[in-house]
Amino acid sequence: MPPKTRSYDPARTRAAVLAQYRHVADAVRTLTEEQLAADAGLGTWTVRDLVEHIAWAVDSLAGAAGRPPAGRAEVTVRTWPFTTETIADRIAGAHRDGEEADLAARYARIGDRFTELLGVLPGDRLLALWIGGMSVADFVVTRTVELVVHTDDLNRALGLEVPLDRQALAACVRVLADALAAKAPGGAVEVRIPPFAVVQCVEGPRHTRGTPPNVVETDPLTWIRLATGRIRWADAEAGALVRASGERAGLGGLLPLMG
Fold this sequence. Notes:
By secondary structure, this protein is of the alpha+beta class. It folds into two domains: 10-168, Four Helix Bundle (Hemerythrin (Met), subunit A); 184-254, Nonspecific Lipid-transfer Protein, Chain A, CATH 3.30.1050. It has helices spanning 10-28, 33-36, 47-65, 80-83, 88-94, 103-120, 136-158, 166-183, 220-227, 233-238, and strands at residues 126-129, 132-135, 189-193, 197-201, 215-218, 242-245. The chain has a four-stranded mixed beta sheet. Strands 1-2 form a two-stranded antiparallel ribbon. The protein is globular and about 55 Å long.
C-alpha cells in the first residue's frame, strides 16, 4: 500500500516561507565581499553563488506566474525531490542570468514581489515550471526545502547562525521523509526524525505493534543533510549522528534523495 499523501496548511506554509526568506535577507545585508567570495562547500560555488541561487529559487514563482498556466499537474510535493536532478545543469547556472544589482536591494525587491504573489495567487493555479505543471500550493511547500537546506549551507560555509523557522524546518523534514517513503515503499523500516516526522519504508515484513525491529532515528538537520547529500550515511553513523538498529536499517544505498 502506498504511503498516504501528507497535507500542508497553505497559510502556515506561506508564513513559514516568508519568515525563512526574511531570515536569509537579513543575513545577506550583513555579508562582506570577502564572505561572498568564500567557498560555499557546494562544488565550485562561492557564497555569492549560493545566496544568488536562493534569491532565484524564491523569485522563480514570479517567473512561472508570468507564463500561461500549465494544462495539468505533473509534479507534486512527493515527486518534486526526484525531478530536480533532471534539470540540475540548468538550475546550477540559472542565478547567473539574474539582475546584477546590489544583493541586499535585489533580495528586498524579490521579497516584496514574492509576498505580493502569495497574497493573490490561488493555491490551485498550475504553474508551468521547467519540470512540468505544479500547483502554487505544492510549489510553495517546496520552497521550504530550498530555503532551509540553503540556509544551513550558508551557516556552515560562514559559521553563521541564521535562524531556521520552525514551521519551515518541519515542512522541509517532512517533504524529504516522504520522498524516502516514496523511493523505497514498504513497512520494514521505521524512520524517526523527532519532533517532525515518522515514516515507514523498505520492502519487507510490516511492523504493526510494539518496538519495530528496524529503526532509524536522527535529528532534523542531520536528516536534511543526509537526504541532500551534505553528509554521507557512513559518516553520520560513525559520528553518532544517526541511530540505526536492525538488519534492514542501513539507508546508505537509498541516500541522498536529491542534491
